């Protein structure tokens, strides 16, 4: 039986790496993003389908789900990966950006999960389904130099954990993936991070893709990648939030324009 995966934000970075791994493992992928040329090139290479959609637009997501479910009534995997940065502190960040990053990073995941729910339930009835949410360590750490981004990821993590609890025993497993710094187009970490120490922890998009596949195979609900040092930073914020916010703020981005 063909397994169907919908991967949002598949036109670059982590989403592209996940789609490549899934295709290698025999999945039929539906690649979602806004840049048609990039999606088409990847789809031709890995034998996938493409769908253009702005996940920050609720009506567009509903139409996307309708189109895909007509072709594929059962969806075995939804990867909510589409996301964007929002650099700058809450003192200076453009307020339109604050709204946009919430729509794309948080609400986009909520809308996709609801839109594809009938397809995920159909797959759950005949063997099981997965929702993978690409959150971030910024979902557990208030990162002042990208405050609105961290807020969107805190919201996305709360949604992901709540959904996982709501779907317990439903046959649909929810996996929250929390990467640290990953070198991608939208997040050129080696260029923007000021601290040499933080730059030394930057990983590649494929490292995250490997974690996604393992999380599904092992039924893990939450994965921090890499585990060291980020797991400790999340714990430290829970114990001493002020101290951690100050340290991270000092060691973060070179400037708000990058
Ligand atoms: N890189 C990191 O350090 C890092 C760390 C932790 C978590 N993450 C998370 O990982 C995810 C992927 O990021 P990435 O690092 O791979 O960045 P990236 O290379 O910039 O990729 C972002 C992807 O999201 C898509 N996208 C952005 N806005 C969209 C929208 N409104 N509608 C549909 N698609 C949209 C982009 O495609 P189009 O522009 O073609 O639409 C692109 O495919 C994000 O959720 C990010 O927050 C990244």
Let me know the CATH homologous superfamily.
Answer: NAD(P)-binding Rossmann-like Domain
Number of helices: 11
Order of secondary-structure elements: EHEHEHEHHEHEEHHEHEHH
Biggest sheet strand line-up: 3-2-1-4-5-6-9
Query: In percent, how much strand structure appears in the residues?
Result: 15-25%
Low-confidence runs: none
The best one-word shape is globular
> CATH top level?
Alpha Beta
CATH topology: Rossmann fold
Strand-pairing-aware structural class: alpha/beta
**Strand segment tally:** 9
Ligand roster: NADP nicotinamide-adenine-dinucleotide phosphate
Q: Outline the biggest β-sheet.
A: 7 strands, parallel
Quick check: average pLDDT?
A: 94
CATH second-level architecture: 3-Layer(aba) Sandwich
Radius of gyration: 18 Å
């Amino acid at each position: 039986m063909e397994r169907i995966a919908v991967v949002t934000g598949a036109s670059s970075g982590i989403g592209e790496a996940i789609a490549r791994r899934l295709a290698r493992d025999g999945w039929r992928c539906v690649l979602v993003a806004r840049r048609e040329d990039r999606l088409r090139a990847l789809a031709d290479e890995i034998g996938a389908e493409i769908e253009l959609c702005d996940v920050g637009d609720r009506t567009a997501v509903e139409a996307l789900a309708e189109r895909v479910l007509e072709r594929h009534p059962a969806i075995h995997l939804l990867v909510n990966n589409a996301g964007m940065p929002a650099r700058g502190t809450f003192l200076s960040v453009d307020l339109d950006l604050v709204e946009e990053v919430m729509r794309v990073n948080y609400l986009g995941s909520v809308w996709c999960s609801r839109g594809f729910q009938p397809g995920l339930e159909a797959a759950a009835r005949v063997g099981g389904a997965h929702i993978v949410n690409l959150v971030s360590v910024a979902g557990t750490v208030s990162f002042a130099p990208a405050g609105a981004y961290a807020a969107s990821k805190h919201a996305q993590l709360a949604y992901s954990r709540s959904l996982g609890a709501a779907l317990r025993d439903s046959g649909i497993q929810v996996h929250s993936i929390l990467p640290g710094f990953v070198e991608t187009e939208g997040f050129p970490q080696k260029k923007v991070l000021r601290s040499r120490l933080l730059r030394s922890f930057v990983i590649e998009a494929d490292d995250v893709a490997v974690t996604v596949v393992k999380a599904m195979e092992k039924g893990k609900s939450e994965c921090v990648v890499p585990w060291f040092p980020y797991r400790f930073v999340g714990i430290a914020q829970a114990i001493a939030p002020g101290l951690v916010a100050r340290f991270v703020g000092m060691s973060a981005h070179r400037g708000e324009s990058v």
